Each structure stands twice: as structure tokens, then as C-alpha cells.
Amino acid sequence: MKLNLNTPVVENREQRLGTIIAWDGAASELSAESAYARGACGAGCGEKARRVCELQGPFTQGSVCSEQMVECQAGNVRDAVLIQHAPIGCGAGQVIYNSIYRNGLAMRKLPVENLRLICTNLQESDMVFGGVEKLEQSIRDAWERHRPKAIFIGTSCATGIIGDDVDSVASRLEEELAIPVIPLHCEGFRSKHWSTGFDATQHGIVRQIVRKNPQKQEDLVNVICLWGTDVFTPMLKELGLRVNYVVDLATVEELAQLSEAAATVGFCHTLASYLATALEQAFGVPEIKAPQPYGFAGTDAWIRELARVTGREAQAEAYIAKEHARVKPRLEELRQRLKGKKGYVATGSAYAHGLIAVLRELGVEVDGSLVFHHDPVYDSQDPRQDSLSHLVDHYGDVPHFSVSNRQQYQFYGLLQRVKPDFILIRHNGLAPLASRLGIPAAPLGDEHHALGYQGMLNLGETILEILARKKFHDDLAAHTQLPYKQAWLRQSDPFILARKRQAEAKGSYD
Questions:
Q1: Residue limits of the Nitrogenase/oxidoreductase component domain (predicted)?
Q2: How does pLDDT run across 192-211, given as a tens digit for each residue?
Q3: 3 near 278, Cβ under 8 Å?
Q4: CA 154, CA 131: separation in Å to the nearest integer?
């Protein structure tokens, strides 16, 4: 599939990949439905290929929007400014992301500073008369205050409704200021899942920042990630490779040299898919088409493919052998201590596939998982990146594998199905509900915590730490109540509302 980099607006994930946000069944069933060679899924599911049948619920209790993902990516480029062309409410996340940004800088041992984000603060009158004058003034203010190397403009639902010509303003000011001024079309209603916001940021970077006439650096590897600790530098150093971390915490120059790298990798296909594919198609930078680096199987395959592409096979085999020998004794100890424990994973889709693999390396039982969306295919369309089938083929099935866009009202029933001893969670909003059921949670604020060989040990140690605090969660459960009626708490199917709606639409619900 060829990505269209000629338009300023990225194609959303529903159109491009067939992304869904509601499904319920076994992981093996979803993997079969999502097979890379399939056609349409049958009558009533649409004609577009790579479409998985999706449960359509009657409402959405809460989520995140694409604009927030632009805020946490473009807003985290260190010598750039992000302008949110939006009402001030859309800028509420700046407080949270400033804390994450500062923590990320500290973890990477970079100078700690605050974000440079500006909101145009659209008012009611702007919804009537337009907000382009405010946008132009905000761009000039960003230049005068910060002298950035680039200015990103994130659109919003409000600007999508009033139809402000953001592209023309950006083009005119880019010529005047002689720096990239990059419109990122990320209106919240543009896509039903926030991951399209990742693509919008990466689309703008490839179009307007990445160097068009690159001077290749044969030992440089692009690593597409978020804010996590620097675990890739020591890993890739074993192969004689250097790391170019993007997008979060990068500089504009580091983004510009994306086209000069020998290869591109990521910690999660959800995040890396668009940018890695765009770099390969537009600049010939090979994307490492391999499973994600989690557990022995995934990490071995990932390192070997990176070594093959960069011509470092001998170094890779020596590193793999050394790391296997190093981690296996402690891993066996962790397996003994975690024997009989049951875990549950609630994170983004491809990341969850990797975490479940690590839990099973640790000997932890995993009967259920919640992923916040599902991409039936990634942009490369290469079967080696089918992370769900890699999980099923190498680590076995997950009987209760659910797709739900962070719906609190469903989470109780999902946990009751499997009654785990603990949960792993990336987005912490669901963790308090688990705690009120007596289930401790490990919030993975450092997304690299479970990655690679050392990651298996890291995650095992973390699980032991949270299990040691089980008494606190038991006490919490004994003294709190959930805000749901008993009829709902007795309901065995968390997706009953969606199933009822679909049955009614077909005229068959009893």
C-alpha cells in the first residue's frame, strides 16, 4: 500500500488499515479474521478489504482524541513549538504532558525544561467569524518568544467545523519565517481512534522536516518511541549502531536526519507503522520487518533482522548468546516465584501483544486481555509484523481477548471473567476500578520497561513488587463500592449492549 504524502491530510486508520475499537472473542479468532491475505468479512461489514467485523456499542463513555496524540508527539519536539488552534479546553492536557515531558527528559539524562505549547483560545465569536487572525498572531508570538526550529499547528474539532484555512496561513508564514510551519490535521472527530493522531504528526514531519537529499549514515538507526528510558542505545551498541530517537524528545535536526538512517525500528507497531513505512517508501530507509522485541522469540528475531539489514550478523549472534546466558538463571527464579499467578493486560494493541508474550515467558497465566483498538494490518502489510499471530503462534491463545476503547463500564465484567491476580496497564484511567476489586495494577509509565531480554526480568520484578501490596487493595475493595447498578454488575457479557444493538438492527433480538 502506497502512502499518499502529497496531501497535507493523513488518511485515517479506519480507511487505511481497517482499525476497529470493539470486538470480543479469543485472540486466535481475531488473528484469523485479521489474516493479511483475507478479503471482506461478509455481508453487512462493508466492502473494504482488511475489514474485521466490529461490535457497535450504543455510546462511548470516554476516550482520547487524535489531537491529544499530536499534543504528546509534536508538542514534545524539544526545539519546536506546537500551536493548538482550538478552544482552551483542548489545551487542558498540556499540564499532564508537561509532567510526562519533564520526566522523559530526566530519564534520558537530557536538560529538563517545560513544553512550548500555545493555544489560540478560540471563543464563541471566532466560531462565527473564523480564527485565522488568531492563528497568524499565535505563529508570530511563537517565533518572537522561542525562535523555534519548527512550528507545528494542531487543528481541532472547532477549526474543522468553521473551516479555517490553516494550510494557507502555514504556507505563508513558513515562507516569511524561513522555518517549517507544519499543519497537522487532527480534528477529534476525524477518526474514531486516537492513534490516527500519531500518523498525523509523522505525516507532517515526513512532508516538511525530513531532509529530501540525505547523506546516508550507515550506522544510524531510527528508533520510533515515546518517552521511555534509553534501553536501545546499549542494545544497538552491541551491533556497532547508533540510535536516533524520535519523535518525542527529539530535536528538529534529529527529525531531519530520519532519511539518512540505515534502518528504522520501533517498540510498538501501532506507533511506528506510519513513519517507518513512509521513510522506506519515500527515502529507501528499510523498516525492520520483524516481530516486536518482547520475549526471547520476538527479541531474537528483531535483532537478527536488524543485523541482516545492517550487515552485522556475527555481532548479533554473539549478543543473543550472551544475553540468553545472562538472563536465564534469574528468569527461572522469577518463574518459580510467579508460578500459579494470573495476569491481565490492558494497553494499546500491539504493545499488549508484546506484554502478554513476556508474561508467558515468566510463567504467568494470561486468560484475558483488553486492547484499546485493533489494526488488522500495519502499513507495511508484511506478515512478519503481524504481532497478534506471532503471539498466538509462539505463546498460545488468549481465550478472552477483547477490544474496547477504554470503556469503564465494560472493565468490571472483563475482569470478572478471568479474576486476575494483577493487571498491567499503560493508560492509568482504568487502574482505580481494578484496585476497588482488590486487583493491584502496574502502570507502565516507562513503555520500554518490558522490552528486550532485560525487560523480562524488569517486568517480573515489578509484578513481585505490586503483589507484595495486595493487602492494600483488598482493604480498598472491602470499603468501597462501584458506581453501577447491581443488574449491570450481575451481567456476564460486558458487550451485551453492543450485541443487543446489532441484533435489533437485524430485527432478531429477543
A1: 74-466
A2: 888 999 999 999 999 999 99
A3: yes
A4: 13
